[in-house]
Amino acid sequence: MKAAVLVFPGSNCDRDMAKAFEAAGFDVSMIWHKDHALPEGVDIVGVPGGFSYGDYLRCGAIAANSPICRELKQHAEAGGYVLGVCNGFQVLTETGLLPGALLRNAGLKYICRTVPLVVGTEDSVFTQDYEKGQEILIPIAHHDGNYFADDATLDRLEADDRVAFRYGRNPNGSARDIAGILSENRRVLGMMPHPERAAEDAHGNTDGKPVFDALATALERVLA
Amino acid sequence: MKARVHVMLKTGVLDPQGEAVRHALGALGFDGVEGVRQGKVIDLELAAGTTEAQVAEMCEKLLANTVIESYQIEMQ
């Protein structure tokens, strides 16, 4: 199983994400933003957290238009799997792979702490090792995590069971407490909280590990 | 030639920064500020012959995120 993690100038969670993929059994390549191709046969592309391009213009806006993101879009449109965390989620909304946008936190502050999340659906390769309604603890670290979409989009996300995670106590003003959403084909997950920061015993919390393990199990089955 | 692009959060999208500015103005004793919306101004220096339609395309593709923002173009 092959994973690729994109690296933009200003990415700072790329190695954490690579470690989490490796621990779940993936061969991981790091792909620089100026590259024009993903490695052949890549199953999942990780878009990591950080401050790509210094958050200039809008968080994720410049990254979304970088050469490698054209490849990312093709990968996703061809049915490939994608996980975007934090800035990665912002990049995915800016590319249009996921609906909505991430606004400045309602309280205007950068928030860095571990928060309770409620699993919204078991129906995805990322969340199938959790139970719907299960509460988990995952760290957040963002200034612009306030999920926004119009009511029709929010209604559709809910009707299609595409809300992967909700905040237990809304820290940033996100519409309908949304912390993470799935694409229509359920193969692209974007989330503001950092599962890769809660994936090893040394982190003091492994509530995020099932995201990577579930993905590995699912892909093993698909590839077998 | 030049163009100036104004990018604002759409009506209905909460602007917490604008709200913070409104509170700060109130704290300074400026009464009667009923609302503040904060946006961006982007000045473009353009090759002669660039059309407003081309600038609009720049806005749609990069300068504004039309999910949350609206834009206005002034060709100068």
Automatic annotation (TrEMBL), chain A:
GO terms for MF: ATP binding; glutaminase activity; phosphoribosylformylglycinamidine synthase activity
Signal peptide: none
Main location: cytoplasm
The protein's role, per its UniProt record: Part of the phosphoribosylformylglycinamidine synthase complex involved in the purines biosynthetic pathway. Catalyzes the ATP-dependent conversion of formylglycinamide ribonucleotide (FGAR) and glutamine to yield formylglycinamidine ribonucleotide (FGAM) and glutamate. The FGAM synthase complex is composed of three subunits. PurQ produces an ammonia molecule by converting glutamine to glutamate. PurL transfers the ammonia molecule to FGAR to form FGAM in an ATP-dependent manner.
CDD domains: GATase1_FGAR_AT
Pathway(s) per entry: Purine metabolism; IMP biosynthesis via de novo pathway; 5-amino-1-(5-phospho-D-ribosyl)imidazole from N(2)-formyl-N(1)-(5-phospho-D-ribosyl)glycinamide: step 1/2
Keywords noted in UniProt: ATP-binding, Cytoplasm, Glutamine amidotransferase, Hydrolase, Ligase, Nucleotide-binding, Purine biosynthesis
Active site feature: C86, H194, E196
EC id: 6.3.5.3, 3.5.1.2
Name of the featured protein: Phosphoribosylformylglycinamidine synthase subunit PurQ
A cellular component term, taken from the record's GO annotations: cytoplasm
Organism: Marinovum algicola
TrEMBL record, chain B:
Transmembrane segment boundaries: none
Subcellular location(s) per record: Cytoplasm
Enzyme Commission number, as recorded: 6.3.5.3
Record pathway: Purine metabolism; IMP biosynthesis via de novo pathway; 5-amino-1-(5-phospho-D-ribosyl)imidazole from N(2)-formyl-N(1)-(5-phospho-D-ribosyl)glycinamide: step 1/2
InterPro entries cross-referenced by the UniProt entry: PurS, PurS-like_sf
The protein's enzyme class: ligase
A single BP term in Gene Ontology: 'de novo' IMP biosynthetic process
Main location: cytoplasm
Keyword Cell cycle: no
Cellular component per GO, a single term: cytoplasm
Protein family (similarity comment): Belongs to the PurS family.
Quaternary structure (record): Part of the FGAM synthase complex composed of 1 PurL, 1 PurQ and 2 PurS subunits.
Name of the protein described by the UniProt record: Phosphoribosylformylglycinamidine synthase subunit PurS
Source organism per UniProt: Marinovum algicola
Source species taxonomy: Bacteria, Pseudomonadati, Pseudomonadota, Alphaproteobacteria, Rhodobacterales
